[in-house]
Amino acid sequence: MSKLLSLTRAARLVGVNRVVLQKKIQGGELDAHDGMVSVDGLLACYPDAELEDTVEIERLSRIKEQAFGKRIFERALPDAEVLAARVTELSKTLDRSQSQLKNLNDFLGKLLDRLDETECDAKSRQMMNDLKLWIRHEAESAMEPGLSNLLAIKDNMLRVMAAHVTVLPSGHDFLLEGQDTLLEAAMGAGIPLNYGCSGGNCGLCKARVISGQVKKTRHHDYVLSDAEKSQGCILLCSNTAVSDVTIEAAVAGSVQDIPYQQITAAVKSMELLTPDMLLLHLQTPRTQRLRFLAGQSVTLRVGQAFSAELPIASCPCDDRNVLFHVRRQNGHLFSDYVFDRLKSHEPVEMEGPQGEFILHEKSPRALYFFAFDGGFAPIKSVIEHAMSLNAESIHLHWIASTAEDIYMPNVVRAWADALDNFHYAEHIAGFDLRAMTDRRKESLERQLDIIAGEEAGLMQGDVYLAGPEAARVIAERFFLKLGLPRTRVASSLIT
Fold first, then answer.
1. How far apart are CA 177 and CA 186, in angstroms?
2. Angle, to 10 degrees, between the axis of helix 438-454 and the axis of helix 469-482?
3. Residues 376, 325: Cα–Cα separation, whole Å
4. On the chain, which terminus has fewer CB atoms closer than 10 Å, C or N?
């Protein structure tokens, strides 16, 4: 029987994302068995896959060729003990295969001997001789070295470089590379596992290992009971995967699964993006990181009294470094304090998260984002999360009052240059999107109508809107009137 692969591993081997394989399964081009695909089926869909160069070998070659490669090499590979364990596991598989081959050869020899010893008449003897010749011919043909299955070679290399982790009961899976912990690798793959401090103190990331081998790589103060240890419980923040692993762990499926938190962070840096837009970088303590879903907001409090609710402009995969885009609003106490008085390393209180402007992760549809002025902040967070999930198609339209309101053009243009599945366009309204008149409303609707006409797949996609209420409400009504179901139009208000 052909070897079965998870969708994550199969997608990695042939150089596509999971969504592409899921569509082939839905279209009947690729057979699936309990969420797994066979190597034969994969090769039938991608006959040229075996001719592609090994991605992991290329990556290692590049690492070796770089100056100061040792540091990068150590970061890319698991530690020596984990690497040795993975090679040992492959060696065991090879030994089992060789042992099975030897047993098969012994069986064939015994079978031919028994056929020789069988007494029968002349007619049966001829049939017996023909059968023996056929068996020898088929056995020799099977033993002849054929063309190398480079897909299988790539899979073996991948097993050395990365462990495949399956999460139950949610069914999520991801690859763990380098020296990441199970929690770090899951967060990097956009999977919101349950956790708290990330430092081994709270025990909230406790999970049970169902199969496979893990290794403790970091000390933790949280004490697991003997009963928990006997059941295979570990802390995800302190362990890595040695082999392919299946764990039982809680995954946040909605905003209700994220706890309300109060954290005192510190100002790491402040950068003026434009005279009226500031990038605020807060860093949480190592033992108390902010857990949130991409697109959510928190309440910030500075100077002990001035507060504002702001969307998070960074990905949940880096929970300790939290970014915000703060717009200058003269006379607004919070804004004035941030622009005029806030200092580096100063404490800032964070409370939250709140909000339901989050990515519909299970949707297979293309993603269309519309950011109006500062609405880019939550959309940036959601897009970065979608990228970590290998979303198939991402479209961003940044509609701004003025050219200056597109305050991070280099970021989105870099995405467009680097990613084949990311498409970006910017539009200048020429008027304040926060103060709409009937004429401005008509102008914005015309602009949206032009975009909808140019985006052939928009009516089959999911739409995300974020920005000042005046513009956002007009856009939401426009897309609903166009015929999009309300369940496929998400919006977030930015003050």
1. 11
2. 50
3. 9
4. N
Q: Are residues 297 and 410 in the same domain?
A: no
Residue 371, Cβ neighbours under 10 Å: how many? 27
Q: Which of 17, 36, 51 is the last residue of a domain?
A: 51
User: What values do phi and psi take at 469, rounded to 5?
Assistant: -55, -40
What is the C-alpha separation between 291 and 186, in angstroms, rounded?
Answer: 14
Domain end, chosen from 298, 323, 354, is at 354
**Residue 460, phi then psi, degrees to nearest 5:** -100, 5
For residue 131, is pLDDT > 80?
yes
* Separation of alpha carbons 262 and 209, rounded Å: 31
Q: How many domains does the chain have?
A: 4
| CA–CA separation, 400 and 247 (whole Å) | 46
Q: Determine the 3-state secondary structure of 306 from DSSP.
A: strand
Residue 66 has pLDDT above 50, yes or no: no
H-helix or E-strand spanning residue 39: helix 39-45
Report helix, strand or coil for 332.
coil
DSSP string of 391-450, one letter each residue: -S-EEEEEEESSGGG---HHHHHHHHHH-TTEEEEEEE-SS-TTS--HHHHHHHHHHHHH
Band (pLDDT 50/70/90 cuts) for residue 58 is very low
Secondary structure of residue 284 in the 3-state scheme: coil
Q: 395 in a domain, yes or no? A: yes
pLDDT over 70 (residue 146): no
Other Cβ atoms less than 10 A from the Cβ of 6: the count is 19
Q: For the chain, how many residues are written?
A: 495
- Reported confidence tier of residue 376, pLDDT bands at 50, 70, 90: very high
Q: Is residue 349 part of a domain?
A: yes
β-bridge pairing 367-372 and 394-400? parallel
Q: Which residues are CB-contacts of 264 (< 8 A; sequence separation ≥ 6)?
A: 285, 347, 348, 349, 350
- pLDDT bracket for residue 23 (50, 70, 90): confident
In a domain, 13, yes or no: yes
